[in-house]
Design brief:
heterodimer, A: alpha/beta, Rossmann fold, 2 domains, B: about 800 residues, alpha/beta, elongated
Chain lengths: ~375, ~800
């Protein structure tokens, strides 16, 4: 029996939708080497209002990226053009997810990825050598070990570069000439040492603005990218929906069949939204914590609470446990953040508990867990 | 579109035929697509007369609007003064209403009127006169909504209807404007005129049906439609083919008018309408008063391009022009944007339009392209400069022009007349400077009054740069006022906006003075208005204003505000002799009342905090000063009594304590022992008290600095205190000590310093320090002047933007 993997690739997870869209897409104009047309890519990410017919079945295309539709459209068009796409924004704003979905839809492969770290070197991006073969045969294509950028150019697919700003600026700069000339020089291979990029090749970079911004990126490299700033979700209802969707997917993968607790998702969506914006729905001013209050964090708090309820409790998501997990998620950077959360509970949550009661009252009563 | 709205048959409810005796042409204000098809419709229908939605009391101005010398943007400025109190309480000041009706080159209404003029057929407005629209409107609805600049052509009906939100969600578009652009602006020109009108009617009908009927009644919409329908019927009697150009929302109402009660018609004199120059930024919907479409500059360019290029190329051409212009402006500001960036942006705009199924890249694609290709890095406040530049460019900056002979309101005529009388340069746009000997020359004082009046109306005409400042009670020693004045287009526009307040500058100022006086709730503001009234020479307003001022003095409970009022009233009275204009703004009774109020509150002011203490200190000094005047000498004893009661309070702010003791000492030398006791008490008290002694001294010296000069023992004690301080405490006290000694003139400081030196056995020569190097001093002065000029520039720019 095949062991299920922890997190299937986007193109595996949405295989059915992608196939349906490919069938739907017949006759639409696509850029060379793209698996889907720009319109189909848009549908794949933003969902279609009506199910798509695929042979004798009809497949519902779920909306996978909630938030800014125009941004997704700009991303797709950028990738069809001559420049790379750079997604920047606060941590946890679904940049990576968007980049994965785009590569899965456009190239059918979301794993051709450089994972940028402070230790990333140029050969992890372009190519390295199989030294045994190198010694035996001398430099040849056979002895060359292609890295994601090489693969992308050779096959005409997208190369993802995660956390590009974590890598040293000198290493980032190896992208400059590749992005403008669309050719990679491999001097070791002599006359055959030129790799011309095939149509369909492009680069999606992601960078978060929190710890090491894009300011340190060389302007030569910046010029070769179109930048898209991904913002936190601005709408509470949407944020709640995202939490429900994501936790639902995680729960399904973990084999937890419980229906999700909408109330808990609502509490978290409101809390995260208000702490991030620094103002409550009633206009009360709130001190913002220094920790990242992203939707992704809210999802993980919610999922943790769900698991606790599933394995240790009666299956109901307890507000006390929710608050405990919230503390774990927020009090990462400084002790002061905890104080800010306490203040939030003793003003905004209290007022809302008095006004709305129900889950908010239980949430407010669980504030003693904050200490 | 038809499939989107699922209502092809719905549109049939509004019949359309080129042969009909009346052709209803639906428009959205400022929409180039509507105007474009309107031109075709006029060609094809060849009407005998054109009726346009707009308050009909402006019909006399049509020759101005359609004159070839008149250039858009311009606006009709409607005003109505409710002197019969139809809408306001009879006791109140009559309410004043006004609204703007802007026209741009691409406004269908203007296109229709111009076409009528060109073809030599009658063209006129058919809506209710402005005053009657207001009479038909419920309070705070429609044109009676509380807005800074109410706009006749606001199209909330089309944009704000609830079904609009559903439509945007269904089509995946961001907002109404994007929806409008996609289905009407970009798609419009490639449709046939019939199809376009049908689509307009269909959309507007749905918008109308999702608007509550009650709202239509309350904001006067039904009454207006009934009136317009009547005018259409009248026109049909004399013309065979009548073209009616109205907001698409109203077409159904015109076809099926409701019976509405007749409205009273207010007197002709109470309402007026004038044409005025308008600007594109003012016409931008984004500037806060929705006037139709956003980005008027952009759509003006689309409108112009529609007459030059085939419709399918217009959008791309305009997008390209804007991208290039944005790029050029960014490069001029030091950005390193290349032509390649512009090429990428154009490509981006084109492909986005294709992805979004739009016939060409519109405003939204243009913005998206700039965001993608020009913004490098995070699109934060600092990173979004390209978008800011684009927004500015798409808004445009054109200013309209009126043809010669356009009627101007009496207020502007009065302004011109006065400029001529005073021989002020009216056509020169360079800044002029004029020096006025206001105290000796009656003519100069008259000019000064005129300047103060224009400044009060905020016309941006004249600014006093130097001279006695009665409002701030400064520079009383100066005898001349220096004014800068400059004529600019904004002056006339501002005057037209104030024309509702009166026929002459004097009258307008008088009216607005009374209004502002009625609106303010602070005695300080009221007194300031009195001072301004005096400066403007509004002597006939003096009594009315005084009545209101009296109410303010009773109602205001703020100590600082009352003190300010007292100071203003006092200065007004004192300075009048200087101006040689005693009598008109003489308010001894008001000053007395104000004085009494302040006196009454004074003893309770002991517990003010550090922030408010200087204010109370100033107030005490002022009161003392007022009682120094002959006519107020009788108030001196009660004041001293109040002072004495104040210092008996415990706790009391040390600075206040010092200041009041100093004043008491000034009035009666017998207070010296009390001062000695207090000083010793602070200096030798507990550490906390000792630390507050600097504050006490600061207060004391502010009112009685001769103490230190006359009494060497006093200085010795202070010296002792300073010697006993640790370095840390000394640093903490230093700011306030500095302030305390700043009240002495240099000679006195010198004397004190010499004495202090002697106490420590140093020779007076030890005090000498080398003077500052003249070169360094000159340089520092130059830097200071440069910085002051920069600040002035910034202030000036800010002012004109505001």
């Amino acid at each position: 029996m095949e062991h299920p993997i922890l997190r299937p690739r986007a193109e595996q997870r949405y295989r059915e939708e992608l196939e349906a869209l490919r069938a739907w897409d017949e006759g639409n104009k696509k850029p060379e080497n793209w698996q889907l047309s720009p319109k189909a890519v848009r549908l794949f990410i933003l969902g279609s209002p009506a199910p798509v017919r695929c042979g004798d079945r009809s497949v519902t295309i779920r909306k996978k990226y909630l938030g800014n539709d125009a941004l997704v459209e700009r991303c797709i068009i950028t990738l069809a053009g001559n420049r790379g796409l750079m997604l920047v924004g606060e941590p946890g704003t679904a940049k990576t997810m968007l980049s994965e979905l785009l590569s899965a839809a456009i190239s059918g492969c979301s794993t051709n990825t450089v994972q940028g770290t402070a230790g990333t070197t140029e050969d992890m991006i372009k190519y390295s050598w199989n030294y045994a073969l190198l010694l035996a045969e001398g430099p040849s294509r056979n002895a060359l070990v292609p890295s994601p950028l090489y693969v992308g150019m050779e096959k005409g697919i997208l190369t993802r570069f995660e956390e590009i700003t974590r890598t040293p600026a000198e290493v980032q700069d190896c992208l400059i000439s590749v992005l403008s000339d669309k050719v990679m020089n491999i001097p070791e291979l002599g006359d055959e040492g030129l790799l011309f990029a095939r149509q369909g090749f492009n680069v999606i970079g992601t960078a978060n603005t929190r710890d090491k911004g894009v300011n340190e990126m060389s302007s030569a490299l910046k010029r070769r990218f179109n930048f898209e700033t991904v913002r936190p979700v601005g709408d509470v209802a949407l944020e709640k929906q995202i939490i429900l969707n994501e936790v639902g997917a995680l729960a399904e993968a973990a084999g937890i069949p419980r229906p999700l607790d909408e109330e808990a998702a609502e509490l978290l969506a409101v809390t995260y939204h208000e702490l991030r914006e620094g103002v409550s729905a009633q206009g009360q001013r709130i001190e913002k914590p220094s920790a990242v209050m992203s939707t992704a964090e809210a999802v993980s708090v919610c999922f943790q609470t769900l698991m606790t309820a599933w394995y240790y409790g009666d299956g109901r998501m307890d507000e006390g446990c929710l608050v405990e997990n919230l503390v774990g998620a927020v009090a990462k950077e400084s002790r002061e953040d905890l104080g800010k959360i306490e203040d939030y509970f003793s003003t905004v949550v209290r007022d809302r508990a008095q006004r709305e009661g129900g889950a908010w009252t239980r949430y407010y009563e669980a504030r003693r867990k904050l200490r | 579109m038809d499939t989107l709205l699922r209502g092809a048959q719905e549109a049939a409810v509004i019949p359309f035929s080129w042969q009909a005796p009346v052709l209803y042409y639906p428009v959205r204000h400022h929409s180039p697509a509507c105007s474009w098809h309107l031109e075709q419709a006029i060609e094809r229908y060849a009407p005998d007369c054109i009726l346009v939605e707009g308050p009909e009391n402006a019909n006399e101005l049509l020759p101005v609007l359609t004159s070839p010398d008149t250039q858009a943007p311009l606006a009709l400025y409607y005003t109505w003064r409710d002197s019969e109190h139809s809408l306001s309480e009879s006791g109140d000041e009559p309410a004043v209403f006004r609204c703007y009706y802007p026209f741009l080159d691409q406004s269908p209404e203007l296109v229709a009127l111009r076409a009528a003029a060109r073809r030599g057929i009658p063209g006129r407005f058919i809506d209710l006169p402005y005053a009657q629209i207001l009479l038909a409107t419920r309070e705070v609805q429609g044109l009676r909504a509380q807005e800074e600049k109410p706009n006749y052509a606001a199209d909330a009906y089309l944009a704000a209807s609830p079904f609009q939100k559903t439509l945007c969600e269904k089509t995946g578009l961001r907002d109404f404007e994007e929806f409008w652009e996609k289905y009407f602006e970009t798609a419009g020109p490639s449709l046939s005129t019939e199809a376009f009108i049908r689509q307009m009617n269909l959309y507007c009908r749905l918008a109308r049906h999702s608007t509550p009927a009650g709202q239509l009644r309350e904001d006067g919409c039904l009454a207006r439609e009934t009136h317009m329908a009547r005018r259409v019927r009248e026109a049909m009697e004399s013309c065979r083919r009548v073209l009616v150009v109205t907001g698409g929302f109203h077409v159904e109402g015109l076809l099926h008018p409701q019976d509405m009660p007749d409205l009273p018609s207010p007197g002709r004199d109470s309402q007026s309408v004038y044409p005025m120059r308008y600007t594109l930024p003012a016409a931008d919907a984004l500037s806060g008063y929705a006037s139709g479409m956003p980005a008027p500059g952009y759509y003006a360019e689309v409108w112009a391009a529609l007459h030059k290029e085939p419709p399918e190329q217009v959008w791309e051409q305009v997008a390209l022009a804007y991208l290039v212009r944005t790029g050029r402006q960014l490069r001029r500001a030091g950005d390193t944007l290349s032509t390649y960036d512009e090429a990428c942006a154009l490509q981006q705009a084109r492909m986005l339009a294709r992805l979004r199924d739009k016939p060409g890249p519109g405003l939204y694609e243009l913005r998206d392209a700039v965001l993608s290709s020009f913004v490098k890095g995070e699109a934060s406040l600092s990173g979004a400069e390209p978008l800011r530049v684009l927004r500015q460019l798409t808004t445009g900056k054109a200013v309209g022009r009126l043809c010669a002979g356009a009627p101007v309101p009496p207020l502007v005529q009065d302004f011109d007349r006065q400029c001529r009388t005073f021989r002020l340069k009216r056509q020169d746009t360079a800044r002029q400077e004029i020096t006025l000997s206001v105290f000796s020359s009656p003519r100069h004082r008259a000019i000064s009054r005129f300047f103060y009046q224009t400044a009060f109306l905020d016309c941006g005409f004249a600014r006093r740069v130097k001279g006695p400042d009665l409002r701030r009670r400064r520079d009383r020693n100066l005898i001349r006022e220096i004014w800068n004045y400059r004529w600019g287009v904004g002056v006339e526009t501002a005057l037209i906006e104030h024309s509702v307040s009166g026929a002459t500058l004097r009258e307008a100022c008088f009216t607005e003075l009374r209004q502002r006086m009625a609106e303010t709730g602070r005695a300080a503001d009221g007194a300031d208005l009195l001072v301004q009234g005096f400066l403007m020479g509004a002597s006939d307003a003096a009594d009315v204003l005084a009545g209101r001022m009296e109410e303010l003095l009773l109602a205001d409970g703020d100590f600082v505000s009352l003190c300010d009022a007292c100071a203003s009233l006092n200065a007004l009275e004192e300075w009048q002799t200087q101006y040689g204009e005693q009598g008109s703004f003489d308010y001894p009774a008001l000053l007395c009342r104000c004085f009494a109020r302040v006196l009454q509150m004074l003893p309770a002011m002991n517990t003010v905090d550090d922030h408010a203490a200087p204010g109370v200190q100033r107030a005490c000094r002022l009161l003392y000063q007022v009682t120094g005047r002959e006519s107020f000498a009788a108030q001196r004893p009660p004041l001293l009594e109040a002072f004495a009661r104040l210092i008996r309070q415990d706790p009391i702010h040390p600075a206040l304590h010092g200041a009041v003791l100093g004043l008491l000492y000034g009035a009666d030398i017998g207070w010296k022992p009390a001062i000695d006791t207090a000083v010793r008490g602070y200096l030798q008290g507990t550490r906390g008290m000792m630390l507050r002694s600097a504050s006490f001294l600061q207060g004391l010296f502010s009112t009685a600095r001769d103490l230190l000069l006359a009494d060497e023992e006093f200085q010795r004690r202070i010296d002792g205190l300073l010697c006993g301080l640790s370095d840390e405490d000394f640093i903490a006290l230093l700011p306030e000590l500095r302030l305390a000694f700043s009240y002495f003139v240099p000679m006195e400081t010198d004397r004190i310093a010499r004495r202090a030196a002697a106490m420590h056995g140093a020779a007076p020569s030890a005090l000498r320090r080398e003077a500052v190097d003249p070169a360094a001093y000159t340089r520092a002065e130059a830097v200071d002047a440069w910085a002051a000029a920069r600040l002035d520039d910034i202030g000036g720019e800010g002012g004109s933007e505001a």
